[in-house]
Design a protein that fits this description.
Strand content: 15-25%
CATH superfamily of the largest domain: Ribokinase
Strand order of the largest sheet: 1-8-19-18-17-16-15-14-9-10-11
Distance between the termini: 25 Å
Shape: elongated
Number of helices: 20
CATH class of the largest domain: Alpha Beta
Number of strands: 19
Structural class: alpha/beta
CATH topology of the largest domain: UDP-N-acetylmuramoyl-L-alanine:D-glutamate ligase
Largest sheet: 11 strands, mixed
CATH architecture of the largest domain: 3-Layer(aba) Sandwich
Length: about 500
């Protein structure tokens, strides 16, 4: 499923009408009927439904919804919250059709009037303003939105909560706080941003007949769901052996932080890596080995419990390398990162402390031809870009794309919505996972899952997207069955990973 900006959605709409020849009135009819079907699933015929219709396509959708619900016997009224001259084009056609079918359309410009109307409703349908809104809502709509937020008991927004920007990078807005949003066509970009997502409430997508030839070429972002995971995750041959599924190397850990690399190695093995070697400080190995009996070990020299840089590593022996977890920020660790960038011909995944050192090595990133994957959380991404965390969170898609394209790397930007970006700007988003992941060690587990996935027979973008899906889905399944978001620990994810494979894949 694609994720679109306002401009991309408009291009698809215009393409359907101007290139394919579909009538805009038909598209509006399809959208309104599809949303009405969702509403009918939510409410009974005795529920009082009040639809607030503004100008533009959203208002037109509101009139179609109203006509459909009234024809099906629902207690529905449509209130127009903009002057008559704002209702034009296809929206005017559907208003006139609504009236000719026996509907009445009172015009209310007062927030007090609207407040009384929605106060007496069981469900309010917000069809006031759509994705074409520029800037903040103006009066009287701003006051009307305030009245809806104060008085309405349950709000379903059409395509987007009125007043909310569809795109990233905007923080100056005042909008409806919906309980539920029904997207037409595709989810809009701002549903995946931390500061705008809460306004949408629960959401789902309905189709309104856009030709697939337009949608396939019209969006640059894709949601990665269980369906994509099932399609792309390779099944194992009955004749496979440990060498068939990759030999991975994990570099990191220290006497102070042995658990980080232990979780990475364990996660890689749980996710299907054939062989995994843990390269860590000698003093950390007893702790790591007690948790990862199936791994092999490369003893690295150490200073004060941290890996030193004196011992060379033969990267040619491995199919993929992950490094940085628990490594520390001393100079010797940076030397290891530099050595890996210069010497490892296989894919290199850099996480945690490794990202801190990567900041000082931009020229090596640009020179490297083998794939590099970076896995920052927002603070680390902001550090790499020399911007503030709030600035990053305003436009995470653009920031991840900027870094990926400039340095030729893959970016896995972690968060409530994990954004995966290729060096060519292709982006996927996963939304599995929950608040229980907000604990130390969760990222170490993800790094291990990524290491294993990178060594399977799939593209790098598929590997990264599937890794993010599995990591989050493991947390979701654990919380749904045996844990809460309070007690879930990173090490618990190691037991959630098998649940994902058993549930989502036929022959796991």
């Amino acid at each position: 499923m694609y994720i679109v900006t306002a401009e991309e959605m408009y291009d698809m709409d215009h393409g359907a009408m101007n290139k394919v020849g579909m009538d805009g009135k038909l598209l509006m009819e399809n959208a309104g009927r599809a949303i009405a079907a969702v509403i009918k699933e939510r409410v009974g015929k005795t529920a009082r439904i009040r639809i607030l219709a503004g100008g533009g396509n959203n208002g037109g959708d509101g009139f179609v919804i109203g006509r459909t619900l009234i024809n099906d016997g629902y207690d529905t009224k449509v209130v127009q919250v903009v002057p008559d001259e704002k209702i034009t084009g296809d929206a005017l056609y559907h208003k006139q059709l609504f009236v000719r079918c026996g509907g009445e359309v009172p015009v209310m410009s007062s927030a007090d009037e609207v407040g009384l109307t929605v106060r007496g409703a069981d469900t309010v349908v917000d069809a006031i303003a759509g994705i074409g809104l520029k800037g903040r809502l103006r009066e009287p709509l701003a006051s009307i939105v305030a009245a809806v937020n104060k008085e309405a008991s349950y709000v379903i927004s059409v395509d987007i909560p009125s007043g909310l920007p569809a795109n990233e990078g905007i923080d100056d807005f005042y909008a409806i706080r919906a309980n539920e949003t029904v997207f037409t066509g595709f989810p809009k970009q701002s549903v995946f941003l931390e500061h705008t997502a809460p306004y949408y409430g629960e959401w789902q997508v309905v189709s309104f007949g856009l030709p697939s030839v337009l949608t396939a070429n019209g969006a640059k972002r894709q949601m990665w769901t269980e369906e994509e995971f099932k399609k792309s995750m390779p099944e194992r041959s009955r004749y496979s052996h440990k060498g068939s599924h990759g030999k991975g190397l994990a570099i990191g850990g220290s006497l102070e932080m042995p658990g980080s690399i232990a979780m990475t190695v364990s996660a890689a093995l749980r996710t299907g890596a054939g062989l995994v070697t843990a390269a860590t400080a000698k003093s950390a190995i007893p702790v790591v080995a007690s948790q990862c009996m199936e791994a092999t070990y490369l003893v690295l020299e150490e200073t004060d419990g941290f890996i030193s840089s004196d011992q060379p590593i033969s990267f040619a022996d491995y199919d993929a390398v992950v490094m940085g977890m628990g490594m520390g920020r001393h100079h010797a660790a940076q030397h290891l990162i530099r050595n890996a960038l210069e010497s490892a011909a296989c894919p290199l995944i850099v996480d945690a402390d490794g990202l801190y050192h990567l900041k000082a090595l931009p020229a090596l990133l640009k020179k490297r031809t083998a794939p590099v994957v970076v896995t920052p959380h927002p603070g680390e991404m902001a550090m790499l870009l020399d911007i503030s965390v709030p600035e990053l969170l305003q436009k995470p898609f653009a920031c991840a794309k900027m870094f990926a394209e400039e340095y030729g790397v893959y970016v896995v930007l972690k968060g409530p919505f994990t954004i995966i970006t290729s060096p060519h700007g292709q982006q996927t988003v996963t939304q599995t996972g929950n608040k229980g992941l907000a604990k130390g060690g969760s990222g170490d587990v993800l790094s291990g899952v990524i290491l294993a996935m990178m060594m399977q027979e799939q593209s790098i973008m598929e590997a990264l997207s599937n890794a993010s899906f599995v990591h989050g889905q493991a947390a979701d399944m654990l919380v749904a069955n045996t844990h809460s978001v309070y007690d879930l620990m990173a090490s618990d994810l190691l037991y959630g990973i098998p649940k994902v494979f058993r549930t989502c894949m036929k022959h796991s």
